[in-house]
Amino acid sequence: MNEWFNFEDVGEKIKKLTKILFWVTSVTLLIAAIIALFAILYSLSEYGYCDWWYYGIIVIAVAVIGIPLLWAYSWLLYGFGEIITKLSEISQNTLAVKAISARQEKNAIANNNSNNSGNQTQQKAEELPDL
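Above: the chain sequence. Below: its structure as tokens.
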């Protein structure tokens, strides 16, 4: 549980949380719609009328319309987590490439300096008069 409170791998946490919230909310909406439907049917069968039937219709409509809307919203939130994950990977890869490039440049400079110092010594020896 402690891993949820640090700020590493935020993209994966957003994606996991999106999945959890989608399923919990979908199941809750579905259960609310079923309860409203049974309450309306019970009231109609027991008393022959239902004064609050429109509340049940609203709950059922919210479930029928709400679950697809929740699904679309979950895509957006999951996509945001995916963007963060991919950007983190790109950033890590860029840092790795910069480190490799800096190491290669350092090695090239060191090799160039050692070659130049050898060439300079050889040039100085050639400039000296023969005895």
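The chain has two helices and no strands.
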